[in-house]
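Recap slide: Calbindin, sequence and predicted structure.
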Amino acid sequence: MAAETHLQGVEISAAQFFDIWHHYDSDGNGYLDGKELQNFVQELQQARKKAGLELTPEMKAFVDQYGKSTDGKIGIVELAQVLPTEENFLLFFRCQQLKSSEDFMQTWRKYDTDHSGFIETEELKSFLKDLLQKANKQIDDSKLTEYTQIMLRMFDANNDGKLELTEMASLLPVQENFLLQFKCVKMCRKEFNKAFELYDQDGNGYIDENELDALLKDLCEKNKKELDINNLATYKKNIMALSDGGKLYRTELALVLCVEN
């Protein structure tokens, strides 16, 4: 099987990395957990042994951490740290600029240039090019186009050719990805509009920090399994990073709350 064969490689290409991720994330929820993670750990060890290769120090630490754990969870970022992936492609997952959700939100603000709520192909290409330049890496345009297409295939869950905020958030490590928690707080457009109008108490068309505080407290209360009220200050700081000078408009808040039409 292709994904298992790829695990035997000395260096894994961007396309092979995509195949591996797609194979093991069998339910397509954006991370490996439970049986998916156990299968990956087991088949990684078997593949390396079959190829006559030792586990790298990163692989060994990974197997030690997750080999017997039934409640582990990893995302694409964690997987990229374990596999000997093509250097330039790996840089996207090691980017210091995206070391926190707040940094990520500010970066999103920069690259969603038309404020459409999506990063489209050309915007994504600019984003990836910038990351490589920050790491002092040069890359030719054809390779950059290939990486852009693979990133789209990897993160574009609804196959619409553009990335939503929550899809792009897969570039963050699972533990630091507060948007994964908000994925479970889905609202329909009607519910969201009603909530926005309720918390936009002065009716000025945007939510400020105090109004957001009230909204988040209620969301935490209603979604105790997914959201932890002790993380309220972090949620608020990360979401306000999307705001325009302290003003959080309807379209931006809808991105975080994964509003469904």
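Residues 34-50 form the longest helix (17 residues).
The chain has 15 helices and six strands.
(End of recap.)
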